[in-house]
Design a protein that fits this description.
The chain is of the alpha/beta class. The protein is 29% helix and 26% strand. The protein contains nine helices and eleven strands. A seven-stranded mixed sheet has the order 3-2-1-4-5-11-10, sandwiched between helices. Helix 5 links the parallel strand 2 and strand 3. 36% of the residues are buried.
Length: 242
């Protein structure tokens, strides 16, 4: 079973104060790049894995998706999603992505934002995703970048001149990483970039685009605090087709 850290009261309270929680998709700096990877949603059947507050589900419905289904392991997240959703044609379901069973050939698009790095048996989940997509269907997701996840003690190192450096060790040692982020003992699963992309290929996906996300000049002008995101990739964005 996946760790349900989002139902921890302290974690949930901290998460609810993040900009992406308060502002939704507009508060996620990687969203413009991720959105550019998406197909035209009008008429599509869409599933969001790790839907959280349901921001993407509501946006997909606004873009004309005819069926939207959001899955999340957290009861607290789903409760907030339902509170924020005024329409009755979005389905939210509590599900553990480690063991979830998905209907075959049901969806045109599977989307996931910053959830896959919590999954230990990612090959199993990707196989289920491949099976639930119709031929030509799209998988678009973001995950923490392997360079960001790999260190056993992640965090910036700052030298006497104020230069920030992100320490990188244990990159080839794949497996769990335990960090303290909003709560103690948050478990994520590090995979090399090659392992992640090859798993997609071996599952039967065709890669369309890979983006080691960093802020644009326009974003830096609007949010100078994003400058450190140019020192190392924090997120990996991937678009693939069945």
């Amino acid at each position: 079973m996946a760790q349900n850290i989002y139902d921890d009261p302290g974690f949930f309270e901290g998460y609810s104060q993040l900009r992406r929680s308060l502002e939704g998709l507009a508060g996620a700096p990687e969203w413009p790049a991720l959105r550019a990877m998406l197909p035209e949603l009008r008429g599509l059947r869409v599933m969001d894995l790790g839907c959280g507050y349901g921001w993407f589900c509501r946006w997909a419905r606004e873009q004309g998706a005819v069926q939207v289904h959001g899955l999340d392991v957290s009861a607290r997240m789903l409760e907030r999603a339902r509170q924020l959703t005024s329409t009755c044609d979005i389905v939210y379901t509590q599900a553990d992505l480690e063991t979830v069973e998905l209907p075959r050939a049901r969806f045109d698009l599977v989307y996931s934002s910053l959830a896959f790095h919590y999954i230990e048996d990612l090959p199993r989940l990707l196989a289920k995703v491949h099976a639930t997509l119709v031929p030509g269907g799209a998988l678009v997701f973001s995950t923490e970048h392997p360079i960001y996840m790999a260190p056993t003690h992640p965090g910036w190192r700052v030298d006497e001149q104020g230069q920030k450096t992100w320490p990188l060790n244990g990159y080839q040692a794949e497996g769990p990483r335990t960090t303290d982020w909003l709560a103690k003992g948050v478990i994520k699963y590090h995979r090399t970039l090659g392992t992640l992309l090859n798993t997609l290929i071996h599952t039967g996906f065709s890669l369309r685009q890979v983006n080691e996300w960093g802020p644009t000049e326009a974003q830096l002008s609007a949010q100078p605090e994003l400058a450190e995101e140019r020192e190392r990739p924090m997120m990996l964005l991937v678009s693939a087709r069945r």
